[in-house]
Structure formats: C-alpha cells, structure tokens
Design brief:
The chain is α/β, with parallel strands linked by helices. The chain is built from eight helices and twelve strands. The protein folds into two domains: 118 residues, Response regulator (Rossmann fold, 3-Layer(aba) Sandwich); 100 residues, Arc Repressor Mutant, subunit A.
Amino acid sequence: MKKKVLYIEDEQFLARIVKETLELKGYEVLHKKDGGRLIDLLQSFSPDICVLDVMLPNIDGYTLGSTIRNIYPQLPVIFLTAKTQTSDILKGFSSGGTDYLKKPFSMEELMVRIENQLKLAAPKEDASIETQEEVALGKYLFSPGRYELQIKGTIIKLSSRESEILSILCKHANKTTDRKKLLYAVWGDDSFFNSRNLDVYIRKLRDYLSQDDGITIITLKGKGYHFTVPGI
C-alpha cells in the first residue's frame, strides 16, 4: 500500500516538482496551497506524514503543525522553510514538528527525511514499555500506547516523540540515561538539530510532570538525564 503524504505549499513551481518526484517514488501525494479545511483533509485523506511549508497564506505552518499535533499526536510532521534562525527551528519543533528542512533543499534529502520519519513512526514489534497500557509515575498514570499522561482526572496528550522519550526515561528511572544513546534511539543520529529538538521535548516533559514534586528530570551536563521517580 502506498504511503500518503499531505503536502501544503503555496509556491506552485516547487510544489509541482516535489509532488511529481514523490509520486514517481511511489507515494500518494495530496497537495494543497494552504491549510484551509485541514481537519477535513486529515480525516478524509488519512496521511502517513505531513510536509508543511512554514510561510503560508492565511494560516502559517506552525499553527497547522500545532493543530495536527493536538489531534494526531503520532503523525510525523516535516516543516519546510527558508528561516534559519535557531529560534525558528525550536519554534518548529515546539509546534508539533518532528523534523525541519531548510530551503533550498535537494529532493534526495527530502526523500531521506520522509523515509526516516515514517520508519521512526512505525509501530515497534518488540514488547517493551512503549506497548504497555499503563505505567505508574508518582501521581501520574502514563499510557505509552495511547500517548497519554493522566493526573487527577486530567488527560495530557503526548506526541509520539514525547511518549517515546518518556518511555526511555522510564526504563532508566532513578538512573542516568545517556544523552547520545537517547538521541540515537529516538532519531537515529545526534545531529545539532535533533539535539535541540530533544532539549525542547525535555522541557515540555518537565512541564507536564510538574504537578508531582517528587518527579524530576535532571540534566547532567555532558552525560545525559537522571529521571527521578519515587516508588518505581
């Protein structure tokens, strides 16, 4: 079965090249000039991955990414943009992006990134904490398979990356998780961009877990993280 790509890009010349190349590589591509009716598109097309330009008319790519992340937390999102500032990259990751590609880019690099994101998003076959229904974390209940944290009746929806990182931290609870090994486990490499992406996710996990003072994620500079959880 063909993998489906929802591609939102308002530059028509670039969009035609990307769409035709992806289709030649065996993907089914739905291209739109803007993000209008995004929720309807997600439901009717059911994409396996979204590729979003950041600078779009009406609704920018970051807003679209946040919408996708809230509804489909496990769906990979690649941002395409000419913006190169670190703050822009961090904003992309905090807006639901799982990868970030600067314009101009080669089709070969885009293909590699799409394939990598689909591989990372694929269900894992081995039995591990990621497939468990529930894990008790202090006052929280973590449901890796549903990408959820629960506390006092409130459900916090996690992205697939957040859930995967928290699962790895849980495996090494009250021990040190090596930063480089964590990067390779989640992204397959320890590049600068993935490293900054990890920083964003760690900050967000700390925020999610802040209602239990006994739970801490301590950064050990040059080493990794110490995930402290009472009673685990």
